Amino acid sequence: MNARIGVAALGLATLAGSGGCSRNEPAPTPAPAASAVPAGAPAGGVAEAARTVLMDSVVLGHSLAPDGSVSAAGAAFAQGNPLFVSLKVSAISPGTEVKLSWYSPTGAGEGDDQLVVPPGANVVNFRAKDTSAWPAGTHRVEIWAGGAKAGEKTFTITPSGSPAAPSSPR
After folding, report:
1. Residue 105: which domain range?
2. Other CB atoms within 10 A of residue 161 CB
3. In a domain, 137, yes or no
4. Partner residues linked to 139 by β-bridges
5. pLDDT tens-digit profile of 6-45?
6. What is the DSSP letter of 73?
7. 92 in a structural domain
């Protein structure tokens, strides 16, 4: 009896999946799924490739160029001085939310910044909120795209009396 129910259910599923074809018509053959992974993409697929491109474009710095990208890259920032982050977003669909989460040397959250990628954007940037109260030490910023963590970067905050001249990231 169980075998008969299983065969009947299989038959109903086949009929339902045939799109209403008569018994004499062959069921349509589904088209082969196109590979969503472009040649040379990382093993994680398109999403991983987009994250890699995004993270490779993240630059921290002291000032911005007219196109919105960081013009004076750096890895050390004096308390209270400007801290900018720019990212190339050409690999991200317009309308995708990009979020930065800032963390202190102890791992405590120092705030979040977010924006939605506008149509036609190649670069977006963020300016860290007032860093004058941030403790000296190694901080990190997490970069999120479309709700998924893309990666993180570290940077140093120096005491406000110390010069944090623009320097090249290592």
Report:
1. 46-158
2. 7
3. yes
4. 155
5. 333 333 333 334 444 444 444 444 443 333 334 444 455 6
6. B
7. yes
Percent composition of the chain: helix, strand, coil (DSSP 3-state, to 5)? 15, 30, 50
CATH number at residue 123: 2.60.40.1930
- pLDDT band for position 138 (cuts 50, 70, 90): very high
Radius of gyration of the chain (CA): 25
Q: Does residue 21 form part of some domain? A: no
Tell me the pLDDT tens digit for each residue of 89-119: 988 899 999 999 999 999 999 999 999 999 9
- 76-78/148-158 β-pairing: parallel
- Six token digits for residue 96: 């995708």
What's the number of domains the chain is made of? 1
Q: Return the residue matching tokens 């088209």.
A: 31
Pick left, alpha or beta for residue 48 (phi over 0 → left; psi -120 to 50 → alpha; otherwise beta).
Answer: alpha
Say how many C-beta atoms besides its own lie within 10 A of residue 83's C-beta. 24
Q: Is residue 18 part of a domain?
A: no
